[in-house]
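HOLO CASE FILE
Compound: alpha-D-ribofuranose
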Amino acid sequence: MKVLCFGSLNIDYTYQVEHFVQKGETISSTALQVFSGGKGLNQSIALAKAGVEVYHAGAVGKDGTFLLGQLKEAGVHTGHVRVLEDVPTGHAIIQNDKNGENCILLFGGANQEITEGQVDQVLSQFQAGDCLLVQNEVNQMPYLLQRAHSMGLKIALNPSPMDEKIWELPLGLVDYFILNEIEAGQLLGAGEDPQGAAADGGVSLLENGEKTAELLHRKYPSAAIVLTLGEHGSVFFHQENCIRQKKYDVQAVDTTAAGDTFTGYFLGTLFQGGSEQEAMDRAAKASAIAVTRNGASPSIPALEEVLAFGK
Ligand code: RIB
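Model generated. Tokens follow.
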């Protein structure tokens, strides 16, 4: 089975700040670092580090060719990434505060220049039984999902960043949703507040992750649900199988790409024959390590580090 990650490649400008800038406020950052990022690139690298053969598809401008080097260094195939002449590479402006929390402003750039022709050309290299992993940072997503499903590929969706374009997707075709509690709440129509009442009448999404995952599975019955819950760990739900995974406690310095690391390690472990339990545990360990390091893709740990974690 081959894994195709069709997704964003970004240059991340990460500013260290005391607190996130408020409306009307001007603040100074204490440091600026430039990292390779993009949810697509991060997830490809996490998959590769987890031990899976992964092919990345997407687009960069000429200013972003160094991102291909980062992918290759991690063992990701980059032959399906187009380098565009007149469009800048996508970028992210990230504020990282003293608690390691972040907020992110995206500029799509080349990530929004995917064509139907590129989708067709890339998918022609894959076949039934392969897996397509996508996020929500490139265009042509509805077409990509429809075509991949019609060819018999499995589809894993990390619906992040969540915006109105998600509702244009054929969500019923998804085989794995990997998402956080805010995204789950939005898919369930429970609003943006994860502390608020969920669709089942008054149960907090965070307090009752199992229930939230079950509700989502009921809404999308062909899909397995992998729900991350921050401090409350994570939950896997598929049919009658519900797994609760604890969070590993670490001192966070930068949470950027923690979710991407979780996604890559979860799928990577599963695709190598690991059980769902093993995949959840390895993903939790990998993302715990990632938050102790600065940056997006540079924070993603190697498999040996994940296996040694906590021993
Ligand atoms: O998930 C983290 C990523 O989100 C960053 O690398 C940034 O580029 C944005 O895509």
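CASE NOTES: The longest strand covers residues 54-61. The first helix runs from residue 39 to 49.
CLOSED: yes
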